[in-house]
Design goal:
Strands 2, 30, 31, 32, 33 and 34 form a six-stranded antiparallel β-sheet that branches. The radius of gyration is 21 Å and the shape is globular. It is mainly β. Strand 32 and strand 33 form a beta hairpin.
Length: 479
């Protein structure tokens, strides 16, 4: 592997970044509300529904949750009909949320949170399914996803929680990733979960387009790793198992949180596992140099039979500490990642080529288009002088032919993951949607961009009824 670039000098952190006000108080739900236009006008051909999910409550009964990943999930829905936009926002009523709401205190463990009970009681406390990471839209329901358990079923319009969803084939103890992949040609959905044990098992699922489990498979792993996302490239799934391993006894007995029990073990390297998407069986495994990733971007099967995929690559696991600090509103741990592209032989899992596409901190890549010409939208910092305790202040467009275009949201404004939306009236000009926290005005907004002209700023800004804290992932459903 090519040597990593030396770490960049980190600007000094400011005392308190404006975005911290967005998580200082639990978010407030709101019923279906027409959105006021702050600037510009709605595109008449923007028709469909945006859904976003993220942690909306990071405190309960005076106890601050110990990691951003532990916030209770809430889903935002924004429906566009070409003339108006109507939004509603609602917490996912998980069993843990309901219990803690009634008791008005923290009762459950989280990924990085331990309840305020004695050490002798901790090991008996249950994990809370926070349902806060992403969403999957099915024809008759919306799934709120959290990879440590089953999805929650929500009503597509009202966002009412209808309970856990076993997808006609899962067991109550199964886990289901927050990053399922939908095959662009067949509509099949591919997902996975980890089964704990002395050595974990990677459990694979193939679902129908309607969300019914059709086939499962298993792959034995070494130790208990952390796997958040995967690659789907036509007839292959690819997993990059980074060298993070759980020390199980401290986590099991409540001596530490699961997050704090995860150890970076670079000597193990990153394992690349290639899976046949039809049989759900592993066909190749290869070890390479260590890195960590949360998210993959564009992927495809090339004409020569090789698999190409983009990955937001961190040099180590410091990103977990950084995300832990987000829950406090003040980060001091640098954790930058760059977008890399890999080409592998699916028959051997060996790397054929690798190079850096974007040599600046970025995250949340979403591609539109296929093959080598696909365009990727993602979050970046406004510039290299941004202090370590600032969230992303810009979105960007990466075109493999023309490079990177950055749309700076301006001082004190923080855009979420950009969602590209195909424009039926002009396929060459997609729309890009982002929910933005405006820290100058302490309000949340929905911004609509022209995908090929990001740098000119949003063509429409809409005001949401209350502050929606920074969220993780979303999806779009055509109208």
């Amino acid at each position: 592997m090519a040597p990593s670039a030396p770490p960049k000098a980190q600007p000094a952190a400011t005392p308190t970044a404006l975005w911290a006000a967005a998580i200082a108080q639990p978010a407030t739900e709101f019923a279906a509300t027409p959105l006021a236009v702050l600037e510009g006008e709605l595109p008449t051909d923007l028709r469909g529904t945006l859904y976003r999910n993220g942690p909306a409550r990071l405190e309960r009964g005076g106890v601050q949750f110990g990691h951003w990943f532990d916030g209770d999930g809430a889903v935002l829905r924004v429906q566009f009909d070409g003339a108006t936009a109507v939004a509603n926002y609602r917490y996912v009523r998980s069993a843990g949320f309901v219990d803690e709401e009634e008791a008005e205190e923290c009762l459950y463990r989280g990924y990085g949170t331990l309840p305020p009970v004695s050490i002798w009681q901790r090991w008996q406390t249950q994990m809370k399914n926070a349902a806060n990471t992403s969403v999957l839209a099915l024809p008759d329901r919306l799934l709120a996803l959290w990879e440590g358990g089953l999805p929650h079923r929500l009503d597509l319009e009202t966002l009412e929680t209808l309970g856990l969803d076993i997808l006609d084939g899962l067991k109550p103890s199964d886990t289901f990733t927050a990053h399922p992949k939908r095959h662009p040609r067949t509509g099949k959905i591919f997902s996975f979960g980890l089964v704990p044990g002395g050595n974990a098992t990677l459990q694979l699922y193939r679902l129908s387009a309607a969300g019914v489990v059709e086939k499962t498979g298993t792959i034995p792993l070494s130790g208990i790793p952390l796997i958040h996302d995967c690659v789907l490239a036509d007839r292959y799934l690819v997993f990059c198992v980074s060298p993070v391993r759980l020390s199980p006894l401290p986590a099991l007995f409540g001596l530490s949180s699961f997050s704090d029990a995860l150890q970076w073990q670079p000597q193990q390297g990153t394992q690349i596992i290639v899976v046949d998407a039809d049989s759900l069986e592993a066909i190749a495994l290869e070890a390479t140099d260590p890195w960590y990733q949360w998210h993959f971007g564009h992927s495809y099967l090339d004409f020569d039979g090789s698999v190409v995929f983009d990955v937001v690559r961190y040099p180590d696991f410091a990103t977990n500490q950084y995300l832990k600090e987000v829950a406090s509103g003040h980060m001091t741990t640098p954790a930058d990642a760059q977008l890399w592209q890999y080409r592998i032989d699916p028959k051997t899992a060996r790397i054929l080529d690798q190079h850096c596409l974007i040599d600046r901190h970025c995250e949340f890549p979403i591609a539109i288009g296929r093959d080598e010409a696909a365009v990727t939208y993602l979050n970046v910092h406004r510039d290299d002088s941004v202090p370590v305790n600032e969230l992303f202040g810009a979105i960007a467009r990466f075109d493999p032919k023309t490079g990177l275009t950055v749309a700076d949201a301006g001082p004190g404004c923080y855009p979420s993951e950009p969602i590209p939306v195909e424009n039926a009236a002009n396929p060459q000009q997609p729309w890009v949607l982002s929910v933005v926290y405006n820290g100058q005005q302490h309000r949340s907004e929905v911004w609509v961009y022209e995908g090929h002209d990001l740098e000119k700023g949003p063509v429409c800004r809409l005001e949401l009824p209350s502050v929606v804290p920074p969220s993780f992932h979303g999806t779009w459903v055509n109208g």
